[in-house]
Design a protein that fits this description.
This protein is of the alpha+beta class. Helix content is about 45%, strand content about 20%.
C-alpha cells in the first residue's frame, strides 16, 4: 500500500460512510471440508461518470477491483481478510456512521486471517456468526438475510 495522509484516509472514511458498504458473508462452496467460506468485503459505489474517484481510492490502497454495473453505477470491491482488516485499521479513526460495522468486520478479519476456517474452534465460529449478524443488522439491504439458525446450520453448529 502506498503513502497515505490523514486527510486522504479521512476522505476515504467519509466516502465509505456515505457511499460504501461493509460485508461479512458466509458463502457456500463446492470444495473444502465445511463446504462454505467467509468473505470480507469493503465496497465503494459511485456514478460511473465519476468513477475516477474509485480509481483514486484503489490507487491509494493499491488493491481492489473496479467494475461497471448495468445501472450506471461503478463499484470498487476490496476482498480478503488481511487486506480488509488492514484498511479498516487505517480508516476506523475517521469512520463516523458505519463504526459498528467497521469494528465488527475488523474483529472478524483479525480472527479469519490467523488460520483456516477448518482450524477455528466452535467458540470462534459462533463469534464470527455474531459478527455477521451485527453487520447485517446495521446494513441496509433489500434482500432477505440469513438468520442465526441458518448460519449455525451452514457451519454444522448447534445453538
Amino acid at each position: 500500500m502506498g503513502s497515505r495522509s490523514k486527510i486522504d484516509l479521512a476522505y476515504c472514511a467519509g466516502f465509505l460512510d456515505g457511499d460504501g458498504s461493509l460485508m461479512l458473508q458466509l458463502k457456500k462452496r463446492k470444495d473444502g471440508k465445511l463446504k462454505c467460506r467467509f468473505m470480507a468485503t469493503i465496497c465503494f459505489y459511485q456514478d460511473t461518470r465519476h468513477a475516477k474517484t474509485l480509481e483514486w481510492i484503489r490507487d491509494l490502497f493499491g488493491i481492489g477491483y473496479l467494475s461497471k454495473r448495468n445501472d450506471g453505477m461503478s463499484e470498487l470491491r476490496i476482498n480478503g481478510y488481511q487486506q480488509v482488516g488492514d484498511i479498516l485499521k487505517l480508516l476506523l479513526p475517521y469512520i463516523k456512521f458505519k463504526k459498528i460495522q467497521a469494528e465488527a468486520l475488523a474483529q472478524a478479519c483479525d480472527i479469519l486471517s490467523k488460520g483456516t476456517l477448518g482450524t477455528l474452534k466452535n467458540k470462534q465460529l459462533k463469534l464470527l456468526i455474531d459478527l455477521v449478524l451485527i453487520i447485517q443488522k446495521e446494513n441496509y439491504a433489500t434482500k432477505s438475510k440469513k438468520t442465526k439458525d441458518d448460519l449455525y446450520s451452514i457451519l454444522g453448529l448447534t445453538p
